[in-house]
Structures are given as C-alpha cells and as structure tokens.
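lol ok so funny story. i was supposed to be doing the assay writeup but got distracted and ended up predicting the structure for this chain instead. priorities right. anyway since i did it might as well share w the group, maybe its usefull for someone
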Amino acid sequence: MSLLSVQIKPASNRFSSKNILSVLTFGAVVCLALGVFTSVAICAGYHILLLVPGSACLACSFRRNGWKALPASSWALLALIGIGVISCLINWDSMQSPLRGLFKLKYFAFGILGLMALRHVISRGVSKKVVRGLLHLFFASIIVSVIYGLTATFADFDLVTWQKGQFDRVGGLTDTMRFGYGMGMVLPVLLTLWLRRREWANWFDVRLLTLALVMGLVGLMLTQTRGALLGLLCAVPLVLYFYRPKAGYWVGGVCGFAIVLLAVGNYLGQERITQLVTGKSQDLPTSLIRGFDKNSARLSLYKAALYGIQERPVFGFGMRGSSQHVPRIKRQHGLKEYPSDTTHAHNTFLEIGANLGILGLVAFLAWLVLWGWESRKRHDAVAVCVLPFLLAFVVSGQFEYLFLANNAFLIFFLYALSSSITGLSKTDQEKEDDCFQPIKYVEVRAEKTTAGPGI
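and the output, tada:
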C-alpha cells in the first residue's frame, strides 16, 4: 500500500468538534439528573460542563440564523439578564456583595446556553437508550434522596454522616424548602409520564417511574411545605385534563376541596383546630396547618418587598440586593423585625421586583408567558409536561423564591429542553454540519467523511 493513500478518518470522527460538544453536554445533563434532589455540588457540574458547548453553539447559531436563532422567550430572558446587569451596576456601591449578585444572573444565562447546547445534540439524534439512562438516573436520585429523608424522620439517623440526630421536616438530601418546592414542580411531570406509560413505555422503566412518583410524593409530605403542596394541587387537574378532560374536571373538584381545607386549616391554625376536635389547647404535630399569626414573619417580608419596589421602582436594589435593605425598610414603616429578614422575600415575583425593579419584573413575566405560549402551540409531549410544571411554578412561587441552586438548575434545564426541540428539521441539521466542521487532516485521496454518531 502506498504511504500516500493512508487516511486518519477514525480519529477525525472521534475528536470532531461536534462530538466533543455533544459529550460535554451529555456529561452536564448527567450531573443535573444526579444532583437536582441530592447535591448542589453535583449540580454545579451542569454549569461547568455546559459553558463551552452552550457558548459555541450560541455563537454558531447566531452566525447561521442571525436574530432568528433564539425563540421569543429567550429574548425576554436576555432582556431580564441585561436589566439585571444594569441594576447591579447602578447599585454597585450600595450592594454588600455586588459581584456575587451579578454572578447570580448565571442561572438565567444558562437557560439560553442550555437551549443552544441541547438543540445541537438533539439535532444530531439521541437514542432511546441514552434517554432511558438519563431518566433512570433521575428517578433513582429521587428514590435515594427520599430514603434518606425517611430514615432521618422515622429513625433519627443520618445516612450521610452515619450518626444519630434530631431531624424535622426532612424530605431528602437537600434543603427542606428546596426539596419540597422542587418536588412540587416535578411531580406533575412524573404523573404525566406515568399516565402515558403505555404510549411512552420504550423511553423509561414503568416500575422505576412508579416508585419515583410515590417516593417523591412521600418526600414532599415529609417537608410539609404548604406552598409546594398548593402548587401540586393546582397542577394535577391540568395534568389529568390533558390526558382525559372529564377526569381533569373531576380531579379538579377534589383538589379544589383539598385547597379549601388547606386554606381553612391555615386560617384557623393548629391550636384552634385542636381545641375544636379534642378540647385541648395544643398544636398539632404538623407545619401544614398554621394560623396566620405564625405566618406574620413571611407576611412582613411581602410588605417589605412591596415597600422596596415603591422605593426603587425602575431597576430595584440589584440582583439579591434587596434583602440587606429589609431591616431598614421595616424600621422605617413600622413592621416587625425577625432574624430571617436578610434572606429573601419568600415570593419569586416580589423578590424579582425588589431586586430588578418593575422593568425586571415585566421581563420576567414576559419570559414566563412566552414560554407557556410557545409550549401551548406545540400540542405534543412537551406541552403536556411543561404547562403543568409552569402552573406549579407560578402558584408555589407565591410562597418561596424558587431561583435558588437546585431548583434554578431544574427550571432552566426544563426551559432549555422544551425550547431546544422546537423547529428542528433536516435543514437545521445540514446547516449545523456546515458550521461545526471536524478537525481537518491532510489527505491525498478526496473521500467524504461521515460525522461520528450523535449521543
């Protein structure tokens, strides 16, 4: 064989830029599947591994499609990021940690970077084996996390440190509020998959999904997070409606009754209910039913956030900058102060408004509406999964700030995934092939090389 005829095609396929970007994106999704309900540190791998493929795909997409590279919802998200940057710059001198606040905008940015990276991978083709593996990792992480919560709650034993201890409202391996609210948003999606288990059986193991669904509900109840439970009760009827409209109406009635009971219970409070039922004056051993007097700390934070918006209505106090002003605002307006005043407003919408002003709040609402509208127009699996998730997010977001660590990873990944599979076609694949050229080697014989298999 002549030396001039030797080619290096296998190496070019294996180490092509497209393959490297796909592998990095796959590794990022693995980190997310494992870490959402188990560890913030594992979740961090999602951002680390996604940065390069997301940025590269974003640059390529703009070079190929110009302003049409992003859906309308992503432009609203970009506007929110821009307003956040301006807000931090304006409030730089008054913010305690301006760089940290600016860095918190990364969650919004990775919604767009994730969209670009996932679109690249999906356009190349994703096998059912890979999807099954990722879903099973996610289901298993939920099960393992709730096992930890059950052991901590009923055996007072920490499986991580392997020591005895006192535990309260522990549903899983992550923080109580993060776990509870995250699970409240995920359960409608899991229920959607379970209802369509016969149609989509090739994409996951039904037994593992069923166990994850049951354990997830148990974990949510162990956290006793009322806002998350309320969000779930609002989303479940929509899940059933998309499956069978009549069933959705019936389940809506049942969930509505449960919501009324939850509202009445919280209005009366633990002590009054105990007196009515048993004649004794003591609290019930649950945090699901509290009187409004025990919610005064959260209500005072709502009022402080509204006063903060009135004080700086345009650009707010800077990303995560409003909390440091809460003690001053409370003293100024005669509101009772609490030790937890410097955390956040316990309301996603008020927190965004206080941090980024009305402009930021409008951009945030535009992103939510456009995301929902884009999903609604699809009439496919994405719509029936995303819309109940969005409803749970909006409802539970009235009682907690949801863009914290694990839940922020979860929300923006689902946004990226649902938006990345919109409008993909053979033409997109052909254009992407032109953009991501593999590493070229010197060859004498001109033969067409084929790209390596997609993930």
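Residues 16-423 form one domain. The first strand starts at residue 157 and ends at 158.
back to the writeup now i swear
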